[in-house]
Amino acid sequence: MGTDRNPYEIFTHNVEEAARCMGLERVEYEFVKYPERQLKVTIPVQMDDGSTRLFEGYRVQHSTLRGPCKGGVRYHTSVCEEEVQALAGLTTLQCALANVPYGGAYGGVNVDVEQISHSERQRLTRRYTAMILPFIGPNEDILAPDMHTDEEVMGWIMDTYSMMKGHAVQGIVTGKPMDLGGSQGVEEAPARGLTFVTRELLKRMKKPLDLTTAAILGMGKVGAGVARLMYVEGIRVMAVGDITGGLYCRAGLHIPGVLEHLSQGKLLCEYQEDGVQHISIEELLRLECDILVPAALECQIHGKNAADINAKIIIEGANCPITWKADQILEEKGVVVAPDILANAGGMIVSYFEWVQNIQTLVWDGDEVNRMLRQIIIRAFDDVWVRAQEQHISLRKSAYSLALERVCRAKKIRGIFP
Question: What is the pLDDT of residue 410?
Answer without folding.
Answer: 97
